[in-house]
Amino acid sequence: MTTTRRTKAQRGRPSQSAAAKHRRDLLAGMLLIRRFEERCVELYSASTIRGFVHLCIGEEAVATGVTTALEPADAVVSTYREHGHALARGVPVEAVMAEMYGKATGCSGGRGGSMHLFDAGRRFYGGNAIVAGGIPLAAGLALAEKMRGTGGLVCCFFGDGAFAEGEFHESANLAALWSLPLLLACENNLYAMGTPLAVEHAQTDLAMRAASYGMPAWAVDGMDVTAVEAAARRAVDGIRAGHGPHFLELRTYRFRAHSMYDPDRYRDKTEIERWRTRDPISVLAERMKADGELNDTVQDELDQRARREVDRAQQAAEAAPAESAATLLRHVHTDSEEAPA
Amino acid sequence: MKTTYREALREALREALTADERVFLMGEDVGRYGGAFGVSLGLVEEFGPERVRDTPLSESAFTGIGIGSALAGLRPVVEIMTVNFSLLALDQILNNAATLRHMSGGQFSVPLVIRMTTGAGRQLAAQHSHSLEGWYAHIPGIRVLAPATLADARRMLGGALADPDPVVIFEHGSLYNLSGELDEDGAAPGIGAAAVRRPGHDVTLVTYGGSLPKTLAAADVLAADGISAEVVDLRSLRPLDDATVMASVARTHRAVIVDEGWRTGSLAAEVSARITEQAFYDLDASVRRVCSAEVPIPYARALEEAALPQPASIAAAAGEVVGRHG
User: Fold this and answer.
1) B304 labelled catalytic
2) pLDDT score recorded for residue A2
3) B325 given a catalytic annotation
4) Could you report the predicted ipTM of this complex, rounded to two decimals?
5) Is residue B217 classed exposed, middle or buried when 0-12, 13-18 and 19+ CB atoms within 10 A define those classes?
6) What are the pLDDT digits (tens) for B39-61?
7) A79 interaction partners in chain B (CB closer than 8 Å)
8) The pTM is what?
9) Active-site annotation holder among B7, B28, B79, B128
10) Quick check: A333 and B100 CB within 8 A?
């Protein structure tokens, strides 16, 4: 941090370079996810939205950094902790919020809820609530990209808990064997629900284990969005160059419990506070301020913009029509309004 | 044309691979080995290893990969060696293939076909002999088919591939060597329809898959005894063709359901309940079921035979409902 830069930023004229604008977009993206999920906490506490709600507060750099490295034609497969992935992928905040309300305008027509967000237009394939269940699916999407010669790739998000499932290992083997264009983005937030990594894994170096399948694999500071983006771009470049699947271990932390149901008795509060000092939003904002790309006024404007967007989405969701029970049996099969019994 | 059930399935696969470049076959030993039951023998030489794709022993992953590739517009045919092993992939079939369309509000289809072997009768003991197709028939979002004839072996796959949603096809292991004349031009009924395989007027025998030959044999025994049995082959286990079953019961006024699944919670129980719900006043006798004994299927021949529906037990049950105790 130099005195000159700080002074410049304090005068309210942060840098307008392309790089500065890009970092501001990253910040705005993370702020939108944070404010959206904070609103979810309020709505859940008020019993307005129900179901299992898994928040990614603290993990925004992962969703934002990785998806920034993808093209619109690429596909994304996610987990039940996917609000951040969906928003970062560009699923409209109104459609995500309406889905939380179970409204007809929700991105899954009220059938999915928090854990099953889908958006065909953005190639966002959910929203899978079976731990590791999305990984074979993502490998299949990647096989199709390869067989059709599209040049596209598939990004699959999953957690450290999924790394313990056979489906991860079966899929990693096949993806490497068939050299599939697959980015395996492992969000290692150190806990599988309430079980710490060291209690569930004989070897906690996940990148090293993934590398044993013969794929490039490395660990990244998941609290630093620019580091995440740089790593994701490196992986994406390798995949597009035809070098098969790549594995990223994104070392991150969720500041809140596993789900809104979870009393979070298994974590030491000092551990949470220690990680909070590495809040991905603060990490980026401080760096931008140091580099003269941001000041408090601009940061506040970005924050207010995110809050207004969430406000609008909430108002739209409240005003939206509920999905009629008359449509209950729709979408079980393609060709019929009602499912054959 | 003289053919076997196995060759008819192979011809169906060959036709599908030729007709549509999006179609590919994937599973354990389907390529170099020619398929665990010889169904895909020679296809890898003809279509290459990209389209007749050997997989490792990873049922969950390669079934899920089939689902993902179907989502992206391909037309995979996944072969799972037996229904017993499909339990390793049941999560993918139920939680993904059957569910994605509804859960996504209708945004995604999964045009996937899964073929697997089912059933007992070859002294393979418990872990290779169970009939679990009734479990699959329980699941909304998939279709479940059971080809029992050469014509269905030859033509059901085409109908399944034309379906935009996931279809699971059960091939009974005892049928692969079934041989006979296949009518080249004969059209099979639609994939959702049942078929009357033998007309009769005293009792309806409802069955499917590997139990069809046994049930037809039982009908011969009954005929010798002066009882005219109508044999209905369900063909589709989900959805069930209620109309064909009820029309038959309306003619015969009696029904026996033959199902190699265990009796408790069986597909036979479902068919029986539907007959009671929809055709109660047509019935002259209570509906009977001939199912597998409530035991893991044993190895020893005499024990295995005793565990399964057989022509004699089917004929005996039919004789009872028509009031003649042979």
Assistant:
1) no
2) 44
3) no
4) 0.93
5) middle
6) 999 999 999 999 999 999 999 99
7) none
8) 0.94
9) B128
10) no
